[in-house]
Amino acid sequence: MYKEKIAEIKNELKDLFNNVSDMQALENIKTEYMGKNGKITLLNGKIKEVPNEEKKEFGMAVNEIRNEFNEKYEKIKKNLEDAEINQKLASEAIDITLPGTTIKNGAPNILEKIVEEIESVFMSMGYDVVDGPEIEEDHYNFELLNIPKGHPARDAQDTFYVKDEDYLLRSQTSPVQARVMLASGGDKPIRMICPGKTYRRDADDATHSHQFMQIEGLLVDKNVSLSDLKGTFDVVVKKLFGESTKTRFRPSYYQFTEPSVETDISCFVCKGKGCSLCKNTGWITVSGAGIVHPNVLKNCGYDPKVWTGFAFGFGAERLAMLKYGINDIRTFYQTDLREIENFDRRED
Ligand code: DAH
Question: Domains of the chain by range and CATH?
Answer without folding.
Answer: 2-91 (no CATH), 110-347 (3.30.930.10)
